[in-house]
Amino acid sequence: MSFLDGFRHRLRVFGRPRSYERELDEELRFHLSLEAMQQEHAAHGTLSPPDARFRARRRFGNPTFHKEETRAMSGLGFFDMARQDLRFALRTLRRTPGFTAIAILTLALGIGANTAIFSAVDAMLLRPLPYRQPDRLMQVSITVPSFNGQPESDDVPWSYLKAAAFRDAQHVFSSVGLYSRESVTLRATDATREESEVIDEGYLPTLGLSPSLGRNFVTDENRPNGRRSVIVSESFWNRRLNADPSVLGRTLDIEGAPFTVIGVMAAGFHGLGGRADLWMTIGTRRPFMFDPNEAWDHEFTMVGRLAPGISPARAKSDAAVLGARANAAFATGGPGPSWAATARPLDGLRVDPLMRRSLLVLLGAVAFVLLIACANLANLFLARASARQREIAVRLAIGASRRRLVRQLLTESLLLSVLGGLASVAVASLGVRTLSTLNPERAFPAQRIGGLGAVNFSTIQLDWRALVFAAGAALVTGILFGLVPATQATRPSLTAALKDGSPHTSLRGILRRVTTRNLLVVVELALALVLLAGSGVMLRSLAHLLSVDPGFDAGGVLTLRLNSTPQARPRDSLPAFYHTLIAQLRAIPGVTDAALGDCPPLAGGCNSTMISRHGGIPLTLGSEPLVGVHWVTPGWFATLRVPLVSGRLFTDADRVGGPKVVLVNATAARRFWPNESPIGKRVGLGQGGFDTATVVGVVGDVHFGTIDSTPGADAFIPYAQSPRNGALVYLRTAGDPALLASAARRVIHDVGADLPVYDVRTLASRVGDASAQARFSSLLILMFAGAALVLATVGIYGVISFAVAQRTREIGIRIALGADRGSVLRLVVSQGAALTTIGLVLGLGTALVTTRVLRSLLFEVTPSDPVTYGLVVVVLAVSALAASWVPARRAAALQPTAALRE
Amino acid sequence: MFFIYQGTAVPRDARDAEKEELLKGTLDMLILQTLTLQPMHGYAIAQHIERLSGDVLAVEQGSLYPALERLQKRGWLTSKWAPSPTGRRARYYTLTPSGRRQLGAEISSFDRVLAAIQRVLERA
């Protein structure tokens, strides 16, 4: 146990250094007095006590020396030195407040930005999911091979019956759960829309969760038209139920039906979807899903918890086999399409791959900024060290060890970085607050951004992990920017420095020092170029994105949602109701057109279904091509200014009872009826009761999905022939659409007081959201690149100014000997130009390699876009030359007499 | 008995350095050996070593204390304060079991070196 004994000893020493010292004194005094007694005794009384003490001292040696040695052995000397160094560093920094302030500010910004981005990376990519044993959770999805021009997919949700068949057949998961997101109308004193999840009884137990108040669903509640129960979130309980502890048993009116509250979840849980406040069962919210005819109605995401001892690979292979069996069980006739299933770790799906990449790119960019800041500070330190060269030389000469001096200089840089690190917490908390308030649902349209909604920007926080990161970053930067100058400055070329105090007489010394400084500046320029090039291509990509024609005119259009219920308005009465509603809305002064649709454009994607062409080749169920289906009123195309390509639009004459009609978009016409006109063709759609309908017209393509994906095949169904409870109202206005929101609300309230009106926004802002992610990433990376440009420019300015200061005497001689100002100017600027050229070449090479990681984030621009690179090189070159121009002017204006006298 | 250089021709600081070099190992061993008898305070340890080695070990008594500190840090000794026979309290050092093992190891390696030197001297 020698280790333990030794450790205990050290603890005692370091724990109470003062008493250690007192005891050491006492021990040595004790020794000396005994020795003195011994001497006196040995001399048989011939020795006076002072003489005896003197002899004892001789035998003992210098007590102070031995005490120091002992202290050094104990390790306490280290702290003495650190304290000394710290005091000295503080004094030095206080003497140059400007330098100190700039250094701390640079570090605070650099470390703070890094910490903020790290917090985002931590929350989005690293932190374990907040469920029991999250590494045992997997998501099980249906896989669909590519057919008829549809791309293959391995992320298709389940229908309830297929999921149930799979669940009952498998043995690799100890439990599985299903969920699907939905928003519902809650009626209390007023009608509001609430986010919810439709789940089965296995969902919460699979995640390892149960309500903190009340209980989970039982199987009985997940049957068609079973007992209606609801579990609510803690925030809903606070917000709507006054945190009533006896809330269990109360009923809520959800979508016109009474649901009994049976549980309240713990704070912070909003479902895997990340937004739910209410949970209800599939049986009560989707009773029809239990009907064998709905086996191809795919809606639910499945999560499974691996059974003990089962590996993810085993689960995956079992899922493939059993998934194929579950799909085949519901394929009617013919060799069903080879649909199967796969399982993936839930953690791997936490965020969309694009989001992951954006965050990592941002982290890389912000780390580059910090590196550049380090290089700059190292340069500042080098300049300072050369000003202190005499001091250092004197200290070396009178016997200070080099290690000791390096330690002292490092203490200075570490002190700065610690101060910068402390200040960075303020910067980081500001950044984190900004990031966490970004509304992920809007900035990153949900469907486009895959991944779990539960992992979103609101979970970003400045926690101890971020603080540890900041502390680590501060230490590393302190060592990074301190070590090089410290070793450089203490390199023992001290004779030259001592001799005449003009360090520039030793050419080799200058070269060596200047080379380090030059190297730093070259690296800075190269890094800045990488950042500028990266942000440049991202900006170009953004410009492309913003210039995409979405297929409609968003200007002046207001949108709002409303929802009716079958109880309030039977399906048959809806067409007349909507007719009245549109007429009333049109009558609002300032409204020029009004229409209804079911799904807004650029929302990430809408409803889609199978389309079958009558008279064509018969296809087996499940193998027909997919088409997006949109419900619209006749005025929709005029309101959004979507052009008619051929045929006719819907009219008020297309109503229930009449022949069913559909419109298709240009892509659908081209894809399904190549080389012929689709007008008059008979089609069947898998939804809306449109088994047999006639195509009456072709309209222009609209971007329903995302701005950067080409529109797919779409079909339009008239509301009047297939009424739906929910609708998105579009109002084209003459002036500012936002001003008409309250008038529209009033009209809707007059027509149907029970209708919840929500999601009131201009269409333009919806379009804006479609490029929000690109704008967000571009903006941040542009900020980082801007910081890099400024730092690099300052860096080259510093190096050239320093070089001019070092060469003052030489330049003075040149001017005195007749060199004209122009040639001095050229001399200095050419040094800057040389550094810039090397930096740019180095940076170009690096940028060409590193910006490849941006490829998947870019839209219609390559990572090595020549235009961007050209522009970036020009920008950097101009700012670098401008930065060396200033000291060059100073050099050229030098008075030779003054310079030589110096 | 021990390799303590006593000549005078060598410059003082060189001799000191040599002494120190040789002492580090041997002094540690002597302290450990001394403490196999019983726990002792620093002065007693110094007395014991001096008595046994005669004047050969002409090392300053103060050098004992850094060595004691070093041995404690390694965990070979522990110390605690206790009253001494004179009534004043003193810090008593005790050999730990691992210190005893260390002593054994040092003695045997020392013996090996000694034997090797002897063989060399006999052949020459």
Describe this entry's structure for a reader.
The complex is a heterodimer of chains A (902) and B (124). With 902 residues, chain A is an alpha+beta fold. Chain A is 52% helix and 15% strand. Chain A contains 28 helices and 22 strands. In chain A, the strands form three sheets. A six-stranded mixed β-barrel of chain A has the order 3-4-9-6-8-7. Chain A has a six-stranded mixed barrel with strand order 14-15-20-17-19-18. Chain A has a four-stranded antiparallel beta sheet with strand order 13-21-12-22. In chain A, a hairpin with a 3-residue loop joins strand 3 (173-187) and strand 4. The longest helix of chain A has 40 residues, at 507-546. Chain B has 124 residues and is an alpha+beta fold. Chain B has a three-stranded antiparallel beta sheet with strand order 1-3-2. In chain B, a hairpin with a 5-residue loop joins strand 2 and strand 3. Mean pLDDT of chain B is 78; it is low at 1-15. The chains are: A alpha+beta (902), B alpha+beta (124).
How do you describe this structure in short?
Chain A is an alpha+beta fold and 902 residues long. In chain A, the strands form 3 sheets. Chain A has a 6-stranded mixed β-barrel. In chain A, strands 14-15-20-17-19-18 form a 6-stranded mixed barrel. Chain A is globular, with a radius of gyration of 38 Å.
How do the helices and strands line up, and which of them pair or pack?
The complex is a heterodimer of chains A (902) and B (124).
Chain A: H1 2-15, H2 17-42, H3 49-60, H4 63-74, H5 76-95, H6 97-126, E1 137-144, E2 153-156, H7 160-169, E3 173-187, E4 191-199, H8 203-207, E5 213-214, E6 229-232, H9 234-240, E7 251-254, E8 257-264, E9 278-281, H10 282-285, E10 301-306, H11 312-329, E11 340-345, H12 353-387, H13 389-397, H14 402-437, H15 440-443, H16 464-489, H17 494-500, H18 507-546, E12 557-563, H19 574-586, E13 591-597, E14 608-613, E15 626-632, H20 636-640, E16 644-647, E17 661-665, H21 666-672, E18 682-685, E19 693-699, E20 714-718, E21 726-733, H22 741-751, E22 757-762, H23 763-770, H24 772-806, H25 808-816, H26 821-850, H27 866-892, H28 896-901
Parallel strand pairs in A: 4-9, 6-8, 15-20, 17-19
Antiparallel strand pairs in A: 1-2, 1-10, 1-11, 3-4, 3-7, 3-10, 5-8, 6-9, 7-8, 12-21, 12-22, 13-21, 14-15, 14-18, 16-19, 17-20, 18-19
Chain B: H1 12-34, E1 40-41, H2 42-53, H3 64-74, E2 77-83, E3 89-95, H4 97-123
Antiparallel strand pairs in B: 1-3, 2-3
